[in-house]
Amino acid sequence: MPEYTTLSRTTGVAVLALVAVACAAGLTDALRRRRVRTRGRARGHLEATPRHTPHGVPVIPRQRRTGPHAEAVRLTPAERDAFAVLVRRFSEGD
User: Fold this and answer.
1) What's phi and psi for 11, nearest 5 deg?
2) For residues 37 and 52, is the Cβ–Cβ distance under 8 A?
3) pTM of the model
4) How far is it, in rounded angstroms, from Cα 36 to Cα 23?
5) Alpha carbon distance 51, 36 (integer Å)
6) Greatest CA span in the chain, whole angstroms?
7) Is the pLDDT of residue 36 over 70?
8) Mean of the per-residue pLDDT values for the chain?
9) Cα(19)–Cα(13) distance, rounded to whole angstroms?
């Protein structure tokens, strides 16, 4: 077997093994956190458990329901008329 195929196979196997170990470690950590959280609830230690989503999987934080405050600028009647003219020009396509 040529050397380049042996090297690529060895590299591929090593990468797959590292991915499998990383996945196993992540799964073990997630299961351990879930088990610790459910044990705390059963014993009545709600304050000692970390706050996560109800289903136990960490997710992106929820969006704020209110956005930033809208800015408002009071225009004089002359400025309103000028703005109306500008809007008409843009809508006509000139």
Assistant:
1) -65, -40
2) yes
3) 0.37
4) 20
5) 12
6) 86
7) no
8) 78
9) 10
Residue 90 pLDDT exceeds 70 = yes
Classify each residue of 50-77 as buried b or exposed e, where b means 16 or more C-beta atoms within 10 Å of its C-beta. Answer: eeeeeeeeeeeeeeeeeeeeeeeeeeee
Q: How far apart are CA 50 and CA 67, in angstroms?
A: 28
**CA 64/CA 75 separation, integer angstroms:** 31
CA 1 – CA 27 distance, rounded (Å): 37
Contact 49, 40 (CB under 8 A): yes
| DSSP conformation class of 47 | G
Tokens of 75: 């225009």
DSSP 13-45: HHHHHHHHHHHHHHHHHHHHHHHHHHHHHHTT-
Residue with tokens 């800015």: 71
Residues 48-63 have pLDDT tens digits of 555 555 555 566 777 6
Structure tokens given for 61: 């934080």
